[in-house]
Amino acid sequence: MLIAGNWKMNTDLSKARTLAAGVRKAAESAGEVEVLVCPPFISLDAVCQVMRGSAVQVGGQTLYPEDSGAFTGEVSAPMLRSVGCSHVIVGHSERRQLFGETDEDVNTRLLQARLHDLVPILCVGETLQQRKAGNQRTVVEEQLTAALANVDIAEADDLVVAYEPVWAIGTGETASPEQAQAMHAFIRSRLTDRLGQSVGAGVAILYGGSMKPHNADELLSQDDVDGGLIGGASLKASDFGAIINVATGYTA
Ligand code: PGA
Predict the structure, then answer these.
(1) Which of 13, 44, 120, 164 has its CA 20 to 30 A from that of 130?
(2) Can you give the residue range of the structural domain that contains 178?
(3) Which residue's CA is minimally distant from atom 2 of ligand 1?
(4) HSE of 129 in the Cβ direction (CA atoms, 13 Å)?
(5) Model confidence over 214-252: pLDDT tens digits?
(6) Which residues are 206's β-sheet partners?
């Protein structure tokens, strides 16, 4: 189980330090559950320092697919590594929708993350319109195939995929446990086709989209749900801690 918090563009430096300290405390009883937080770039260094000596890992919310250079405003994989990040989110639907990231951009970012030993959390998911038209599987399959182009199977064993139906993000509406399980099983089958049985079976598939303390159990109890990528509820240490607590019930 991996419980990951995506703080998005929330928390200034001081609030980030306070939230990080709260998460560190809440994660003390996480047992086998892996805990990750993804703060804004500006607070990554400070949050890494707060988490030092604990098991809580820290990740970036995106990266630029070059090591350095004239790319005003961007942050690279070596920069993320230099402050102590272990993970990076790639292809979040907000990056795709608001900042125009294409499937090809997601692929180059994922390859760049791998190159620098960052674990990519690859986000996929359909919009409401696509689900209403019954196209959710086609959309997710296309996103997966494009994002994993040229990915070496040997390099994919620690890959994380997050299924985030766009209609459930920040809306308070979640996929039903059945909808989540059906899509996670589908993603699992596509991953085993692409990466082989042993690697595909080992990829953690997180659910994201309005996961909260009150619905975490029904989602995390599904066979192919290996954790959560949590936005809103990751901004309160007590809520995030409550979800971590639920996840401890599902560690092997
Ligand atoms: P949410 O965000 O939990 O606020 O819906 C999830 C995400 O976008 O990662």
Answers:
(1) 120
(2) 2-248
(3) 231
(4) 0
(5) 999 999 999 999 999 999 999 999 999 999 999 999 986
(6) 162
Q: Which two tokens stand for residue 167?
A: 């209609």
Residue with CA nearest ligand 1 atom 7:
231
DSSP, res 2:
E
164 is catalytic: yes
Please state, in angstroms and rounded to a whole number, the distance separating the CA atoms of residues 208 and 77: 24
The per-residue pLDDT for range 73-126, each reduced to its tens digit, is 999 999 999 999 999 999 999 999 999 999 999 999 999 999 999 999 999 999
pTM attached to this predicted model? 0.96
Ligand 1, residue 212: give the atom nearest the CA: 3
Query: Is 116 one of the catalytic residues?
Result: no
Nearest to 195 by CA among 150, 136, 164: 150
Q: Is the dihedral angle over the CA atoms 9, 168, 136, 176 positive or is it negative?
A: positive
Q: Choose, from 87, 126, 164, 184, the residue flagged as catalytic.
A: 164
| CATH code: domain of residue 73 | 3.20.20.70
Q: Encoding tokens for residue 220?
A: 């995390």
Q: Considering its fold, how many domains does the chain have in total?
A: 1
